[in-house]
Amino acid sequence: MAIKVIGKQNGVAILLPNEEYYFADPDGDLVAENGSIAGYVNIKESLTGRYIAKELYYTSVLDSSGNVIGSSGSNCVSLLNSNYFDRTSKISEIDDVSLQNTIAEGQILRYVNVGGGVLRISNETAVNQFQSFTDPQSAGDFQYGARLIFDAYGTSPSATAGTLVSFGNTNVGAVGAQSASAAATGMLLVVTSAGTGDELLVEGVVKMSSNTGWSTAKKGAPLYMSTQAGSLTVTAPSTAGDFVRIVGHVVDAANSTIYFKPDVNWVEL
User: Are 141 and 253 part of one and the same domain?
Assistant: First the structure.
């Protein structure tokens, strides 16, 4: 009788002689030990002591390719414990991160595949994402929780960060109260600080490129499409033919920051 021990980065499986699989985590759930006779191997659960395989000659312990694991009973036990049953060292590189004191505000932890089946944990600043009240800092920056659309065009067309736009054929275009009906009443977006039509904010707290027309507005005041395409205003348009549509509300007028969530309703004067 033979068994196959199949080791993976996130688990270990043992194919038993009855063709059933036994699964375990590769973090010490299993342990191999020498049998009572030289050359023999035992495999058991480390917590319960229950044997998965007992007094099995080492040549019957095979890897996923059918090769014998080890050159002797003791060598087989050593290889099983180090290469299959204890994989905790495989996340082996920490990129200068102290989980207690060096992760700055706005940073995230990300797994980076550095090859050879090894993952590294890297601390990085989440692009465009800020938490403090006076942030975002640059036009098009947004806070956590924002909803985005990526790669709408796939060509990274240039666009002005922090402006109100709608979709066009090959790129976004600035939109306002006097734009064509299809643009003014369709889906509205804000260009993020990436400055491209391939990264657009659909909803969330974002810094606009200008606060002209609402620089002294109160927090929570509604904002409308301006007659100047790409911009906003706290005063509802009033000229015949204009489109009146709320696109968001003021968060911090002095910092040009709004909560962007365009109303699906609109009025044409």
Answer: yes
How far is Cα of residue 100 from the mean position of the Cα atoms in its chain?
22
With residues binned 3-state (H G I as helix, E B as strand, rest as coil), the percentages for the chain, rounded to 5, are 10, 40, 50
35-57 average pLDDT score: 91
Beta bridge partners of 130: 143
Of the candidates 184, 165, 160, the one whose C-alpha atom is nearest the C-alpha of residue 245 is 184
> Do residues 109 and 103 touch, judged by C-beta distance below 8 A?
yes
Cis peptide bond upstream of 136, omega within 30: yes
Burial class (CB in 10 A: 0-12, 13-18, 19+), 74: middle
- Answer yes or no: do 174 and 162 share one domain: yes
Domain that holds residue 250: 133-268
In terms of domains, do 46 and 102 share one?
Answer: no
Shared domain check, 50 and 152: no
Same domain, 159 and 263: yes
Same domain, 162 and 264: yes
Q: Is 141 exposed, middle or buried (0-12, 13-18, 19+ CB in 10 A)?
A: buried
- Domain match, 145 and 233 both: yes
Alpha helices in the chain (DSSP H): 73-79, 181-184
* pLDDT at residue 45 tops 70: yes
Q: What share of the chain has pLDDT > 90, as a percent? A: 59
Report CA-CA distances (Å) from 250 to 14, 111, 148: 60, 37, 20
Q: In angstroms, rounded to a whole number, what is the distance separating the alpha carbons of residues 256 and 72?
A: 72
> Do 140 and 260 fall within a single domain?
yes
